[in-house]
Design goal:
- 25% of the residues lie in helices and 38% in strands.
- The protein is built from five helices and 25 strands.
- Strands 4, 14, 15, 16, 17, 18, 19, 23 and 24 form a nine-stranded antiparallel beta sheet that branches. A five-stranded antiparallel beta sheet has the order 1-2-22-21-20. The chain has a five-stranded antiparallel beta sheet with strand order 9-10-8-6-12, with no helix packed on it.
- The model is unreliable at 1-32 and 371-379 (pLDDT under 50).
């Protein structure tokens, strides 16, 4: 009985080992699905290429502008940004607003309570002042009809009444509540920044927040002085925000060159200003990497930035072999200055060759993980 149990246990162990070896081989083949070609190329089936999003395009010579690479910042355009200020002395309450919160024109930004300060409720005081001035003016007007007060005295009473009414209406124009004065947004947009905190004491005219409608934005590029002679030739620009990897071309955002500095601001940089439509994906105030494109252009072979991969400081592209759509050759190239989207290839490619323009990183990984023929890892 004991011998039978031992034999059954040995059989189960052998079966498990065999099953594990088969599964290991199957899993490895599933991961690689690529192998090295006899001539050193990387072979990937068409089905696998489609699944990985590997796209190939023939390269050709085209005009490529000289590029100035620098840094810059996205700014709000003039007129698209307003500062909201306190209408009276008091304690400010901001509610649930945060930087980036959406606000509509006329919506509440803050509430200023004047009851908690030593001088008392300013709205109540303005109402009393207005009522006193109104009664004084009415009395003087009646006395004037009886020639008891002069016309100049009546004019002074009327002026005091109008001033008191204007002051009171200015306080309640944005809306007055029992708890204080409402400060409303002058336009629809977003809270760019909050300049005070709830509970702060503010005086009349103190900036509370900045509201930006962000219809149009500005791009300020800080260009080194050595490129000043080329600034008259700048026609377009591409920029990449610091919070993402996607590049944007100004000409595709209805962008235009507004101006550029005629003098350095003392730090060896010249500001170049562009204006463009905000598509809702840009953060005002953020820093960007900028590629200025000049009118001077020369024909050369270019590829998308995504087509170039780097390995230990050497740059490569993957070229599809002419007689085999499944096989790719890893080709070293020498590149020039990119414009943020495409890069010129100075050496290593010939016109008409088909290059991987999307999914190059997958071809690279396939080449690294490809299994040499006859090696199965079945151990």
């Amino acid at each position: 009985m004991k011998k039978t149990a031992i034999l059954l246990a040995l059989c189960a162990l052998v079966s498990a080992c065999h099953h594990h070896g088969v599964k290991h081989v199957h899993d490895h083949e599933e991961v690689s699905e690529a192998h090295h070609h006899e001539d050193g190329g990387i072979e990937i089936s068409p089905e696998r290429q489609e699944k990985l999003g590997i796209l190939v395009e023939p390269v050709c010579r085209e005009a490529f502008s000289q590029v100035i690479r620098t840094s810059g910042q996205i700014e709000s355009s003039a007129g698209d940004e307003m500062t909201v200020v306190a209408k009276a002395d008091g304690i400010v309450r901001l509610g649930h607003l945060n930087e980036g919160s959406a606000v509509g024109k006329g919506s509440r930004i803050a509430l200023i309570s004047t009851k908690e300060i030593g001088s008392g409720d300013i709205l109540a005081k303005a109402a009393i002042t207005l009522e006193t001035a109104r009664k004084e003016y009415e009395r003087d007007r009646q006395l004037s009809q009886e020639n008891i007060v002069s016309e100049s005295h009546l004019d002074q009473s009327r002026l005091a009444y109008e001033h008191a009414r204007a002051a009171y209406e200015a306080l309640v124009s944005g809306g007055a509540e029992e708890d204080g004065l409402v400060v409303a947004s002058p336009l629809s947009g977003y809270i760019k920044n909050l300049l005070v905190k709830s509970g702060d004491y503010v005086q009349t005219g103190t900036p509370l927040a900045t509201v930006s409608c962000n219809r149009r934005l500005r791009l300020r590029a800080d260009v080194p002085e050595k490129y000043y002679p080329l600034l008259t030739q700048v026609r377009d620009a591409t920029f990449t925000p610091s919070y993402g990897d996607k590049s944007y071309r100004l000409s595709e955002l209805n962008g235009r060159l507004v101006s550029y500095g005629r003098a350095s601001d003392g730090d060896c940089f010249i500001p170049v200003i562009f204006e463009f439509d905000n598509k809702g994906t840009f953060l005002s105030g953020s820093f960007v990497e900028v590629y200025l494109k000049t009118a001077a252009a020369s024909p050369c072979i270019t590829v998308p930035l995504e087509a170039v991969v780097e390995d230990q400081g050497v740059r490569y592209v993957f070229v599809r072999e002419e007689d085999d759509d499944d096989c790719f050759e890893k080709r070293e190239v020498r590149i020039g200055q990119s414009d943020g989207q495409r890069v010129p290839v100075l050496d290593g490619l010939c016109e008409g060759e088909k290059v991987v323009v999307s999914g190059a990183v997958h071809v690279k990984l396939a080449g690294v993980s490809a299994v040499p023929a006859g090696h199965t890892h079945s151990h």
